[in-house]
Automatic annotation (TrEMBL):
A Pfam match: RBFA
Principal cellular location given in the protein's record: cytoplasm
Region annotation (Disordered) ranges: 126-146
Gene Ontology cellular-component annotations: cytosol
Family as reported in the entry's similarity comment: Belongs to the RbfA family.
Protein name: Ribosome-binding factor A
InterPro entries: KH_dom-like_a/b (IPR015946), RbfA (IPR000238), RbfA_dom_sf (IPR023799)
Organism, scientific name: Polymorphobacter multimanifer
Organism domain of life: Bacteria
UniProt-annotated location(s): Cytoplasm
Function description: One of several proteins that assist in the late maturation steps of the functional core of the 30S ribosomal subunit. Associates with free 30S ribosomal subunits (but not with 30S subunits that are part of 70S ribosomes or polysomes). Required for efficient processing of 16S rRNA. May interact with the 5'-terminal helix region of 16S rRNA.
Gene symbol of the encoding locus: rbfA
Subunit field text: Monomer. Binds 30S ribosomal subunits, but not 50S ribosomal subunits or 70S ribosomes.
Protein backbone atom coordinates (compact mmCIF):
# COMPACT_ATOMS: atom_id res chain seq x y z
CA UNK A 1 0.00 0.00 0.00
CA UNK A 2 1.33 3.45 -0.93
CA UNK A 3 1.97 5.94 1.87
CA UNK A 4 0.32 9.36 1.73
CA UNK A 5 2.50 12.30 0.82
CA UNK A 6 3.43 14.33 3.92
CA UNK A 7 3.13 18.11 4.14
CA UNK A 8 5.85 20.48 5.41
CA UNK A 9 5.21 19.46 9.05
CA UNK A 10 5.35 15.75 8.18
CA UNK A 11 1.60 15.11 8.43
CA UNK A 12 -0.07 13.07 5.74
CA UNK A 13 -2.69 14.55 3.47
CA UNK A 14 -5.18 12.03 4.84
CA UNK A 15 -4.66 13.26 8.42
CA UNK A 16 -5.08 16.86 7.27
CA UNK A 17 -8.24 16.03 5.32
CA UNK A 18 -9.89 14.16 8.18
CA UNK A 19 -8.85 16.87 10.63
CA UNK A 20 -10.51 19.44 8.42
CA UNK A 21 -13.69 17.35 8.27
CA UNK A 22 -13.74 17.11 12.07
CA UNK A 23 -13.17 20.88 12.28
CA UNK A 24 -16.11 21.60 9.99
CA UNK A 25 -18.38 19.23 11.93
CA UNK A 26 -17.44 20.78 15.28
CA UNK A 27 -17.80 24.33 13.96
CA UNK A 28 -21.27 23.48 12.66
CA UNK A 29 -22.43 21.95 15.95
CA UNK A 30 -21.01 24.76 18.08
CA UNK A 31 -22.16 27.47 15.68
CA UNK A 32 -25.73 26.21 15.53
CA UNK A 33 -25.99 26.32 19.31
CA UNK A 34 -26.67 22.61 19.78
CA UNK A 35 -24.78 22.67 23.08
CA UNK A 36 -26.86 23.58 26.12
CA UNK A 37 -24.16 25.57 27.88
CA UNK A 38 -24.52 29.19 28.93
CA UNK A 39 -20.75 29.86 28.72
CA UNK A 40 -20.55 28.63 25.12
CA UNK A 41 -23.83 30.29 24.12
CA UNK A 42 -22.54 33.70 25.29
CA UNK A 43 -19.28 33.35 23.37
CA UNK A 44 -18.38 33.29 19.74
CA UNK A 45 -16.15 30.22 19.50
CA UNK A 46 -13.83 29.65 16.56
CA UNK A 47 -12.51 26.16 15.81
CA UNK A 48 -9.28 27.11 14.09
CA UNK A 49 -7.55 23.75 13.66
CA UNK A 50 -7.90 20.06 14.40
CA UNK A 51 -4.79 17.88 14.54
CA UNK A 52 -5.34 14.16 14.21
CA UNK A 53 -3.12 11.49 15.71
CA UNK A 54 -1.61 9.09 13.15
CA UNK A 55 -4.01 6.31 14.19
CA UNK A 56 -7.00 8.71 13.89
CA UNK A 57 -8.17 7.88 17.42
CA UNK A 58 -7.38 11.25 19.00
CA UNK A 59 -8.06 14.76 17.81
CA UNK A 60 -6.62 17.90 19.36
CA UNK A 61 -9.06 20.73 18.73
CA UNK A 62 -7.67 24.27 18.86
CA UNK A 63 -10.28 26.86 19.73
CA UNK A 64 -10.40 30.59 20.32
CA UNK A 65 -13.22 32.42 22.07
CA UNK A 66 -13.64 35.58 20.04
CA UNK A 67 -16.30 37.33 22.12
CA UNK A 68 -14.97 36.24 25.50
CA UNK A 69 -11.46 36.55 26.88
CA UNK A 70 -11.77 33.51 29.16
CA UNK A 71 -10.46 30.87 26.76
CA UNK A 72 -9.72 28.37 29.53
CA UNK A 73 -13.35 28.45 30.70
CA UNK A 74 -14.52 27.75 27.14
CA UNK A 75 -12.04 24.86 26.84
CA UNK A 76 -13.32 23.44 30.13
CA UNK A 77 -16.95 23.80 29.00
CA UNK A 78 -16.24 22.11 25.67
CA UNK A 79 -14.35 19.30 27.43
CA UNK A 80 -17.45 18.74 29.54
CA UNK A 81 -19.45 18.22 26.34
CA UNK A 82 -16.78 16.08 24.63
CA UNK A 83 -18.94 12.92 24.52
CA UNK A 84 -21.85 14.75 22.92
CA UNK A 85 -19.54 16.46 20.44
CA UNK A 86 -17.86 13.14 19.62
CA UNK A 87 -21.28 11.65 18.85
CA UNK A 88 -22.14 14.56 16.58
CA UNK A 89 -18.80 14.20 14.77
CA UNK A 90 -19.48 10.45 14.34
CA UNK A 91 -22.80 11.22 12.62
CA UNK A 92 -21.08 13.53 10.14
CA UNK A 93 -17.97 11.47 9.35
CA UNK A 94 -17.65 8.14 7.61
CA UNK A 95 -14.56 6.81 9.37
CA UNK A 96 -13.86 3.54 11.10
CA UNK A 97 -13.11 5.28 14.40
CA UNK A 98 -14.45 8.47 15.86
CA UNK A 99 -11.62 10.32 17.54
CA UNK A 100 -11.56 11.31 21.19
CA UNK A 101 -11.63 15.09 21.35
CA UNK A 102 -9.12 17.10 23.35
CA UNK A 103 -9.61 20.85 23.45
CA UNK A 104 -6.77 23.37 23.61
CA UNK A 105 -6.58 27.16 23.40
CA UNK A 106 -5.25 28.35 20.04
CA UNK A 107 -2.39 30.69 20.83
CA UNK A 108 -1.58 31.50 17.21
CA UNK A 109 -3.78 34.62 17.42
CA UNK A 110 -1.61 36.07 20.19
CA UNK A 111 1.57 35.08 18.35
CA UNK A 112 0.44 36.83 15.19
CA UNK A 113 -0.52 39.92 17.20
CA UNK A 114 2.97 40.01 18.75
CA UNK A 115 4.58 39.69 15.31
CA UNK A 116 2.32 42.44 13.97
CA UNK A 117 3.31 44.72 16.86
CA UNK A 118 7.00 44.12 16.17
CA UNK A 119 6.57 44.85 12.47
CA UNK A 120 4.82 48.14 13.26
CA UNK A 121 7.71 49.48 15.34
CA UNK A 122 9.16 52.54 13.56
CA UNK A 123 12.69 51.12 13.36
CA UNK A 124 11.42 47.87 11.84
CA UNK A 125 8.78 49.47 9.60
CA UNK A 126 11.42 51.75 8.12
CA UNK A 127 13.39 48.71 6.95
CA UNK A 128 10.31 47.07 5.46
CA UNK A 129 9.44 49.92 3.09
CA UNK A 130 10.72 48.98 -0.37
CA UNK A 131 13.17 51.44 -1.88
CA UNK A 132 11.78 53.69 -4.55
CA UNK A 133 12.81 52.53 -8.02
CA UNK A 134 15.39 54.66 -9.78
CA UNK A 135 14.04 56.25 -12.94
CA UNK A 136 15.31 54.69 -16.12
CA UNK A 137 17.72 56.91 -18.08
CA UNK A 138 16.13 58.62 -21.04
CA UNK A 139 17.41 57.58 -24.42
CA UNK A 140 19.10 60.32 -26.43
CA UNK A 141 17.11 61.18 -29.56
CA UNK A 142 20.29 61.53 -31.65
CA UNK A 143 21.31 57.91 -31.04
CA UNK A 144 18.24 56.64 -32.90
CA UNK A 145 19.00 58.64 -36.07
CA UNK A 146 22.07 56.60 -37.01
Amino acid sequence: MARATPDAQGRSVRLLRIGEQVRHALAEVIGRGDLRDEMIARSLVSVSEVRMSPDLRHATVFIKALANNDDQAIVKALAGHAKFLRGEVARRLATKYTPDLRFRVDESFEASARIEAVLKRPAIARDLIPPEPKPAPLADEHDDAD
